[in-house]
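Researcher: Please generate the 3D structure of the following complex. Treat every line as part of one assembly.
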Amino acid sequence: MKIKPRNAFVPVLTIITAIIAIWYGAAVFMNAPFEWDQAERIGKETNWSAVVPATMDQKRPVLPAPHQVAEEIWKTTGAMIEKGRPFSKRSLIFHAWVTLSATLLGFAMGTMLGILLAVGIVHSRVLDKSMMPWIITSQTIPILALAPMLIVVLNAVGVSGLFPKAVISTYLSFFPVAVGMVKGLRSPETMHLDLMKTYSASRAETFWKLRLPASIPFLFTSMKIAIAASLVGAIVGELPTGAVSGLGARLLAGSYFGQTIQIWSALIVAAIMAGLLVALVGWVGKIVSRRMGAREAVA
Amino acid sequence: MSDTTVLIVAVLFWLGAWYANNRLAALTPQNERTKFAINLLIPFLFGASLLALWEGITRGFSVPTVLLPPPSMIWERITNSVPILWADFVQTYVKAVLTGYIIGCSLGFLIAILVDRSPFFRAGVMPIGNLVSALPIIGIAPIMVMWFGFDWQSKAAVVVVMTFFPMLVNTVAGLAAAGQMERDLMNTYAASYWQSLVKLRLPAAMPFIFNALKINSTLALIGAIVAEFFGTPIVGMGFRISAEVGRLNIDMVWAQIFVAALAGSLSYGALSLLERSVTFWHPSNRR
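Model: Done. Output below.
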């Protein structure tokens, strides 16, 4: 069952409104104990009508209210541009860019690796039988556990900055692409493959003219998963470097200093970035599919 | 054995395994059992030759163990520090992962059944659930550590949130999987909502639900380990990894990764077995 986006608009809006309402409620509920406590300490009588507004405006709330997070995001993005320093170290644009560049590099490497592996697997029985089980097993391994080691070890041999993070993203993103491409390259029907044979097409010709075009919808479906995974890899890759730059570093620094608003704003920016990246890949996929007149991927 | 001999033996083993695999893959046995054995033997040989190469290269070229310790050294470390590994495993896997996994999956399942009753909510939840499943939810780890403290409860909370959305989305999709014909049949039997849910729609949703369970089994372990990077008592797999990386005891890190890999693949395997017995009717399980 497919839900048309237009029909889903009102329900989605309703649920988002509900989430924001619950968020405000939770902010009052979770931040109120601090206010009562403060009032008691200085021996001041207080009541709910004073406490509730105060919970919206704490410096280090347990749960910041949505507008506080929005303000912080504006202060570190839009306001920075207005001041003409969009890439200063205090700006989230700078940190988001650091993370984004690692994500994109890792995504590109992971996609290449995934496609190459898939081509090898489709064309060689040995590779298929010997590697496919290991590729699947490799995903049951919580590979992010490797991240700190990879960063530190690569740092020890003098490789630091963008590349180690991209390696983690590569590892996370190659799998969906490899599996999706194997499916896609095998998706042409026997009839079409037989037709190529009657044309006495070589293996390479069959690949370029039949298998590859048939696999494109599968490629984009799996690339949507891969780019989301890349972003997670890049963020986690920034944790062990000691909170220098990047969205992951903002999370870590925020947790060290109890800056909840900073954590939430980094989190929201990461979420927006993930949404945009996935949407972008989906959009490119749609255009390419339309140009090629390709069929929908049936995963 | 000197290190150069190890390298030579390893390369020879790799070449031999490669040749053997080529021959094995070319075979087309008629017998089901032989086929099964060959399909198991090929990846096993491939894995073994990778291990042999790893051992040979690290020892033959004397790669510093800080960079990449040879498998034999990692194995020695594993056998020597079983108590530590076990304590970390209990802290991270048994306490945080299992608790969070069970709560998160059942919560996602129950909410999905509630949501499924109203088409309005279903239309609203699906796009949001799909979007949230793509988000880097792992980032909530520092918040959960602040809310629930350093011990395993905060890690379980991260796991709950991470496993909730895949389960929700998959169950809602699965509940729509039963065909119209079958539903009409249930109607003609005058089946109540609950009867048709339990006897038709839930069984039809099982492949989707198991898909979510499998995705979640990996996600849960990742969530718990990464959450430990943000603050933890002095036990746990994530803690051990970040602490031993700092002291450059890379063999201990690999030992932890070995345990994590073992736990991850075993739970995945167990779920696959369970899936096969529950969804025996599904086309992908037919012979």
